[in-house]
Amino acid sequence: MKEADKAQNPEVIFVSGPVVKASRAHLLSMNEMVEVGAERLVGEVIGLEDDTATLQVYEDTTGLKPGTRVIGQGMPLFAELGPGLISHIFDGIQRPLTELKEQWGDFIQRGKTGTALSRERVWQFTPTAREGDKAVPGQVIGTIQETDAIVHKVMIPPGIAGTIGKIAGPGGYSLEEEIAVIKTSGGPRSIRLFHRWPVRQPRPYVRRLMPSEPLLTGQRVIDTFFPLAKGGTAAIPGGFGTGKTVTQHQLSKWADADVIIYIGCGERGNEMTGVLTDFPQLLDPRTQRPLIERTVLIANTSDMPVAAREASIYTGITIAEYFRDQGYDVALMADSTSRWAEALREISGRLEEMPAEEGFPAYLASRLAAFYERAGQVKALSGEKGSVSLIGAVSPPGGDFSEPVTMHTKRFVQCFWALDKELASARYFPAINYLQSYSAYTEAVAAWWTERTGPEWEKLREEAVQILQEDSKLQNIVKLLGEEALPDDQRRILEGARLIKNDFLQQSAYDPVDTYCMPLKQFYLLKVIIYFIRRLKDVVDSRIPLFRAMELPVVEQIHRAKYTVSGEDIAPFEQMLKDMDQQVDQLLSRNQEANHGV
Amino acid sequence: MAFETTETAAKGVAGTGNTSSAHLEFVGLSKISGPLVVIEGIRDVGFGERVEIVASDSDVRQGRVLAISEKAAVLEVFHGTSGLDQADTRVRFMGRPFEMVVSKEEVLGRIFSGLGAPLDGGPAPFRGEARNVNGFAINPVARAYPEDFIQTGISTIDGMNTLVRGQKLPIFSGSGLPHNDLAIQIVRQARLLTEESSFAVIFAAMGVRHDEAEAFRLSFEESGVLNNVAMFLNLADDPTVERLVAPRVALTVAEYLAFEEGMHVLVILTDMTNYCEALREVATSKGEVPSRKGYPGYLYSDLASIYERAGRIHGRKGSVTQIPILTMPDDDITHPIPDLTGYITEGQIVLDRMLYQKNIYPPVNVLPSLSRLMSDGIGEGKTRDDHRNISSQLYAAYANAKQVERLASIIGEEDLSVTDKKYFQFAREFEKRFVNQAKDEDRGILETLDLGWELVMMLPSQELVRVTPEQVEKYGKASHTCNQE
Ligand SMILES: Nc1ncnc2c1ncn2[C@@H]1O[C@H](COP(=O)(O)OP(=O)(O)OP(=O)(O)O)[C@@H](O)[C@H]1O
Ligand SMILES: [Mg+2]
Questions:
Q1: Looking at residue B6, what is its pLDDT?
Q2: A563 ligand 1 Cβ < 6 A
Q3: pLDDT at residue B190, rounded to an integer
C-alpha cells in the first residue's frame, strides 16, 4: 500500500537552490502550487517537459534530497482575500509574519504554517442583500467594519451568479462559516467571508475608466509638477540612496487613497520595521485614524528566499485589486521592481533559458507590461468605481537609466519621477530631477485644480516650469563664467529659480510641518513665489540692483512659509502678497526719488 | 595570542564545530573543474549539506553541495581542488549544513580561520550549540528599529553621517587609501553617549594581507579590548573559496553574542571586494550566465544574505552593527560591488583619493556618503536639536562650494563674486578643519556641531537657508564670537 502510494506522487530528482525538478510531471499542471517533502515547502510548477516538472520553491531548499515527495495542490498560487488583510504584514506568498513570529520566534523558519487569514477571529457581519435577490459576481452582500478606517465589503466571488438562496443575519462569524448560499445553474454554492484568487490572474471588472482625479500625495514636486492620477502608474528610478524608499513611504503616509499596499520586494528588513513602527502612530490626515488601519504590508526582504520575491508583487497586486473591487482607491508601492526583475533573472538563469539583455529573460518586458496593466480606474463588478494606482521603484545598476528594467518600465508608465544623484548628495530632497521627470496626467488633473484653486493654477505652473528651464540653460553659462557675468534680467531668472527650488520644490520628509503639504498651500506658496518673480522684473527694469530686492523682509517670509504655515490656512499667504507689493513699491519709489534727487 | 599558524591548524582537520561524523562516504570523482567537483552514483544526499573531501594523501578539505540530482552531486571545495585526483579522492557527506559551535567563553579573545578552525593553538569550541552559518532571516516583525547614536569621535561621521547601533554602514575605499586606519579609529573610539554596556568586536578578514590583519590585532591589543575580540582570518594566501564562508562564520558568532548573550557587537568585514571576486570565480567555474562585469546575477541577494545580518531585535538586549570595508575597483562607485552594496546597506562612508592627496585624514567625501538611519539617531535628547539642520546646511554649502571650485578653476579665483569667494574659502576650511582630524583625535558630538556652525557662519546670512534664524542666533552667533575671541 505504502509503495503504491508513493509511486503515485511526483518526486524530487534535482535541486539547485530554488529550482527543483520533479518526476511524473503528468500528475502536475502548469503553475500549479505544490508542497515539497515533510516540511511542506511551498512551490509552484513553472515548466513541464518530457514528464519532468520544473518547480520554483519559495523557501530555502537546504537539505532537500532527490526522492522527496512532491504533492500537487490542484490549484495555482493564490491569495486569500477577506477580512484580516488590513494592518497585517505577510511575506511574498502571504504567510502571516506576526503569527510566524509567535509560532517560531524572531527568525523566519521554512515550511508550511497556518493560513494567511485568521480562522479564529470573529467578524461582525451586516448583510446588505436579502434572500431571493439576484446574485451577480462581485456583488456586495454584506459589510464588516474591518478597522475604524475601512469597511470591508463582502462580495460574491467572480464566477458565481444566480439568486441568493440564503443569507446570514447580522452577527459574528468566523472566516470558514457559511454566510450565504447562491442558487446557481450548476447547483447551490456556499459563500464564506473569504475566497481564494490565483495571484497571476488579474481580477475581472466591468470596464476601465479614464483617470481624471489626482492622487494627492502632499508632495509639492509631485502634485504640482508631475501629478499622479488615481488609477495611474508611476516609476521612481534612482541610484542607491537617492530617495526611492523615502518617497514611497511619504506616499504611503499621505496619499489620499483609501487603502495602501506596501510591498518591500527584496529590500531592507529595517525599512519594513520602520513602517511597522511609524504607521500605528501616524494619523491619516483625512480620517484621523492611525495609518496602519488602511495599510497592508507585504515583506520579502533581501535576505528572504528569492523565488518568493518574484511572487510578492503578484500577491500584493491581487490584494490591491480586491479592495478596488470593493470601490476603494488603492495605491500600491513596489520597492523595488528591479529586485523582482532580478529574481526573474535568477530563476531564468537556473533554468538555463536563453538570456536577452544583461542576462534578463526575453519575457522581462512583457511581464513588466502585464504588471503595470493591472493598474487603472475601473467600474468594478459591484458597480462601484475603484482604482489601483501603481508606484514602482526602480533601482538601476550604477544609477544608469539606460539599463533594461528602467528602459522597459518607462514604456509602460505614465509618470516618471527621475531621482538625481547630484541633488541627493547636496541633500536636496526630494531629489526628483525636474527636467528629466514627466507626467502624462497633468492635463487630466488640471480641471480638478482649476475647480479648487481658480483659473490661475495652470498659468502659474507653466510659468514656474519655464523659469526652471531657462535657469538650466543659464546654469551652463554660469558654470563657465560665473553668475556675475550675467545681466540683471537673466540673474532674475536665476534668483527666481532658486526660490522655486529651495522654497517650493525642496521638501523635507522629516520636518513635522513640511512633510505633508495641502493642495491649497501648494497653490498659494507657488503663487507668492511666482508673483514675487514677476515683481522682480519691475525691480530690474528700474535698474535697481537685484540684491536689494532679495533683501526685502518678504523673501525671508517666503523661505520660512513651508515650515510655518500649516493646514489650509491661507491668510499668511494673502498677507505676504500684500507685504510684497508694499515692499517692492517702496523700493521702486525710493529709487525714483533718489534718481530725481540727483 | 598571535596568529602564527601551523599547517594542520590552517587546513582545519575538521572545521570548528563541524565534528559530527559523516553519514555517507563515496570514493572517486567524475569531474574536477576549478573549485568544483562532480561525484556520481550517490544517494541520500541533501542540497547544501557540508562535505569533507579527503585527498589521496589524507589531506581533508571542506566543501558543500551546490546542486544535486538523482545520480550526481556538484560540490564546491573551499580549499580548492589542486592536488585532488579523480580515482582515489573520498567524499564524506556530513548530513548537515555548515555549522559553527559557539559559546561566549570559547570564542572571545581567539583567532580562527575563515572556516572557524582555531589558529591560535587553542581548542576548537565544543561547548555551545552548533549553528548553521547561513543563519536565518530576522522576521521584520521582530526587528527593533535602530536609533541609538554611536559616537565615533569622527566629525564627518558623527556630524553628517551618523552611525547608530544595529546599522550596517560600509566604508567604500580605494586601494591604498587609509580605510584600515579609519576602521581602527572607529573601533577604538566608538561609544554610546547614553550607557556603558558589554560589547564585542568581530573581525573577519577575507583575502587581506598578513600585515593588515596584524595591524588590526595590534590596535585591539593596544586599546586593551583584545579579550572582547574574535578574529576570523582568511588571508591573501589562503584559499579563495574559503572567503565565501568566512563572513558567515563571523556573523554567526556575532548574532550569538548579540542576541543570546546580550552584547553590542561591532563587526568589521574586510575586504568585501575579495569576497565578491571569490564568488565570481565559483560562478564562472559553474558556467553560469554572468551579469555585469562577470559577476553572477545573484550577487545582490548573496551580499544581502550577509549585510542583512545586522540589527536589533525586540526584547533582546544586544545588537549587531556592521562596518564592511570594500575597495572600489578603479575608485569607481558604479562598479557592481560598491553599487550593490550601497543598494543593501544603510548608507556608506566614501573615501576620496583627491582628499587623500591633499593630505586630509580621514579622506571622507561627505557628498556621496550617507547614513540612512541618521535621522532617527539624532536631535534633541539624542545629540542636539540643531543637528539635522546644521548637517543639511553643511551639505548644501559644501556641494555649492565644490561647484564654485570648479568655476574658479576656469575663470580664476580672483574673478569670483563676493559670495562665491566666501564659498571657495568655506570649502578649504571645511576640508582642513572639519574633515581633517588626527588619527587619535576623539571629537565629541557637540564639538563637531559647533565646528560646523563656525564654518557655515563664514557664509553670508542669506545663504543659510537650511537652518532657522533662531538656530543661527543660538548656535551660530555663539560659535562665531567664541571663535573671534
Ligand atoms: N524627501 C526626503 N526628505 C528628507 N530626506 C530624504 C528624502 N528623501 C530621501 N532622503 C534621505 O535620503 C536617504 C536615502 O533615501 P532612500 O532610502 O529613500 O533611498 P533609496 O533610493 O530607496 O535607496 P536604495 O535604492 O538603496 O534603497 C534617506 O535616508 C534620507 O536621509
Ligand atoms: Mg530604498
A1: 33
A2: no
A3: 86
Give chain B's residues under pLDDT 50. Answer: 1-19, 482-485
For A369-404, the pLDDT digits (tens) are 999 999 999 999 999 999 999 999 999 999 999 999
- The residues, ordered by sequence, that sit 6+ positions from A4 with a Cβ below 8 Å of its Cβ are none
Distance between CA atoms of A269 and A246, rounded to whole angstroms?
15
**pTM for this entry:** 0.93
Contact A54 CB / ligand 1 (< 6 Å): no
pLDDT 10s digits, A16-36? 888 899 999 999 999 899 999
Using CB atoms, pick whichever of B46, B339, B391 lies closest to residue A397: B339
Per CB-CB distance under 8 Å, the chain A contacts of B143 are 269-270, 272-273
Q: For chain B, how many helices (H) and strands (E)?
A: 16, 22
What per-residue confidence (pLDDT) applies to B11?
34
Whether residue B46 and residue A270 make contact (CB cut-off 8 A), yes or no, is no
Which residues are CB-neighbours of A3 under 8 A, at least 6 positions away?
none
- Give the pLDDT confidence score for residue B195 in this predicted structure: 57
Percent over 70 (pLDDT), chain A: 98
Query: If you count them, how many residues does chain A have?
Result: 598
Distance A62 CA to ligand 1 centre (A): 35
- pLDDT at B2 (0 to 100): 39
Q: What is the DSSP string of B369-397?
A: -EETTHHHH-STTTS-TTHHHHHHHHHHH
Query: What fold characterizes domain B387-484?
Result: 1.10.1140
Task: Give A528-569 as a DSSP string.
Answer: HHHHHHHHHHHHHHTT--HHHHHTSHHHHHHHHHHHH--TT-
Q: Is A109 exposed, middle or buried (0-12, 13-18, 19+ CB in 10 A)?
A: middle
Q: Which of B140, B372, B391 sits opposite A276 (nearest CB)?
A: B140
pLDDT score for A112: 64
Q: How confident is the model at residue A296 (pLDDT cuts 50, 70, 90)?
A: very high
State the pairing for strand pair B24-27/A438-439.
Answer: unpaired
Task: Kindly give the number of the ligand 1 atom that is closest to the alpha carbon of B373.
Answer: 29
Residues of B in contact with A238 (CB under 8 A): none
Q: Is A461 in the pocket of ligand 1 (CB under 6 A)?
A: no
The CATH number, out of the four listed (3.40.640.10, 3.30.70.890, 3.90.1150.190, 3.40.50.12240), of the domain defined by the range B100-377:
3.40.50.12240
- A481 pLDDT band, cuts 50/70/90, is confident
Q: Say yes or no to pLDDT of A173 above 50.
A: yes
- When mean pLDDT is compared across A261-270, A339-348, A525-534, the lowest value belongs to A339-348
Boundaries of every domain in chain B: 2-96, 100-377, 387-484
How far is B235 from chain A, CA to nearest CA, in Å? 27
ipTM of the modeled complex: 0.91
- Which CATH number fits the domain B2-96, given the four candidates 2.40.30.20, 3.30.300.30, 2.40.110.10, 3.40.718.10? 2.40.30.20
Whether A241 lines ligand 1, by a CB cut-off of 6 Å, is: yes
Size of interface A-B (CB pairs under 8 A): 219
- In the predicted model, is pLDDT for residue A185 greater than 50? yes
- Ligand 1 centroid distance, CA of B201 (Å): 29
Distance, in Å, from the CA atom of B294 to the CA atom of A548, rounded to the nearest integer, reads 59
Whole-number Å distance, alpha carbon A267 to ligand 2 midpoint, is 7
Q: Please indicate whether, in this complex, the C-beta atoms of B137 and A108 are within 8 angstroms of each other.
A: yes
